[in-house]
Design brief:
Elements lengths: L6 H19 L4 H28 L9 H6 L13 H19 L7 H11 L18 E2 L2 E2 L15 H16 L5 H11 L5 H11 L25 H5 L5 H12 L6 H16 L5 H9 L7 H12 L6 H11 L8 H15 L3 H11 L3 H16 L6 H4 L5 E6 L2 E5 H11 L2
Antiparallel strand pairs: 1-2, 3-4
Length: 425
């Protein structure tokens, strides 16, 4: 697969902007310049309309969006298993997720080289073994609060982030509608309580607000339906279905369908199942293998994960892991489901059952590393339980996690763990 680049066209559009600026300074007719701009815009809108038409008619029997068709192409066979010390394990998963996300926030999508320089500047090792002491621009806002809240010495609770907010939203959705909620239920909750979103989630939220029904919100003006946004919403459905990967994947499908299609949906299903499996297994890689049984074996994501599993024996550091992923998926978006899913698997392989090492490796691998570290930390944390989380990762949270959900700005982590446990009853 080779991606078609629009880089030269983007540069030409910038050149047109520069010409327009110069001609404005030369007192050229505003009307004439506006007509030229309108002509360019019409061409762009026409191309976008044609692409939306192609997207709406694109069908691949080996990568279906229908749930029953997905199940028909999956291995299945994931039964429910009892979980011991459930609340403690859920708290471990939550803390692992929140710690991974927080460690990744200051370096999200930064290059490995930049992160190495940052670690050297702070006098710490790399990959990092504790939260970052500094963020690039601490005065900038991140989901409504300053980036400073992710600095080690400024932290007072788990900072706001989408990787955190969606996990808490999944709890609220299941408490309101039950674990058999529908995509329509998710859409209704989003319209009422979600004030902002990014990429596929932003497109779907805009569509909902414009009257498009939830089951069609993912297919209108949405070129982001294979990105990682659904995958980062998976974990709560694993917590609520601990030891039951199939039910976790089924719930994740209903959530993912609001915003994503194909591999975007499969990413959430796979990792919801993997999180659920982690409560009853002793290895993060095995948990991901269990999750893979819930998605089509014919899909790009499944084949990518098979590839990642095949190269794990030769990966003994983050540099080899990242190099292999970049070579395998050249040109792929930095927040795509597929390449980031492979990095989650690699982080779990490198970290073993050590939660701190797992999130450290996930962040060091780069790409969308607040997301990958959150998911990897969740899986490792579910295996290790609360006692497996080192105090340096958990104490700065002070049992508090903040979100940007309307009317729900703050939660107690202990209370969240108990509430997810209650959903398993």
């Amino acid at each position: 697969m080779s991606y078609l680049s629009y880089r030269e066209l983007i540069q030409k559009l910038q050149t047109l902007q520069d010409y327009s600026n110069l001609l404005t300074e030369y007192d050229c007719s505003e009307t004439e310049l506006a007509l030229l701009r309108e002509g360019v815009e019409k061409q762009i809108v026409s191309a976008q309309t044609q692409m939306n038409r192609l997207l709406a008619t694109a069908f691949d029997s080996e990568a279906p969006d229908d749930y029953n068709a997905i199940v028909a192409l999956s291995q299945g066979g994931n039964g429910k298993q009892p979980v011991k010390n459930l609340t403690s394990k859920i708290k471990g998963a939550l803390l692992g997720r929140f710690a991974g996300c927080t460690l990744g926030i200051p370096v999200e999508n930064r290059s490995v080289e930049d992160m190495q320089k940052k670690a050297a500047y702070e006098g710490g090792g790399f990959p990092p073994t504790d939260y970052w002491k500094t963020v690039g621009e601490p005065w900038r806002t991140h989901y409504g609060e300053t980036w400073q809240t992710a600095q080690r010495d400024e932290m007072n609770g788990c900072p706001r982030d989408d990787d955190v907010t969606y996990t808490l939203m999944s709890l609220l959705i299941m408490e309101r509608y039950g674990k058999t909620f529908t995509t329509d239920d998710v859409g209704a909750f989003w319209k009422e309580y979600l004030p902002m979103a990014c990429t596929a989630e932003e497109m779907a939220l805009d569509n909902l607000r414009n009257g498009i029904v939830p089951k069609e919100a993912a297919i209108h003006n949405n070129p982001y339906s294979n990105l990682i946004g659904a995958l980062i919403r998976a974990d709560g459905f694993g917590y609520a279905n601990a030891g039951d990967p199939h039910s976790a994947a089924q719930a994740a499908y209903q959530d993912a369908y609001l915003t994503h299609r194909r591999d975007g949906i499969y990413g959430e299903m796979l990792f919801a199942a993997a999180v659920a499996a982690a409560f009853t297994c002793n290895n993060g890689v095995e948990a991901v293998k269990t999750g893979m049984r819930e998605i089509p074996r014919t899909s790009r994501l499944y084949k990518a994960m098979e590839w990642a599993l095949s190269v794990l024996p030769v990966i003994d550091d983050i540099y080899t892991g990242r190099k292999l992923v970049d070579e395998k998926f050249p040109g792929m978006h930095c927040v795509h489901t597929i390449n980031n899913a492979c990095l989650i698997l690699i982080a779990l392989h490198l970290g073993g059952n050590d939660v701190g090492k797992t999130i450290s490796f996930a962040v060091g691998l780069g790409l969308d590393n607040d997301c990958t570290a959150a998911t990897a930390g969740s899986i490792a944390g579910a295996i290790a339980g609360e006692k497996g989380i080192s105090p340096n990762w958990s104490e700065p949270f002070h049992d508090t996690v903040r979100t940007y959900i309307k009317d729900y700005p703050e939660f107690s982590i202990d209370d969240v763990a108990r509430r997810f446990a209650a959903l398993n009853e």
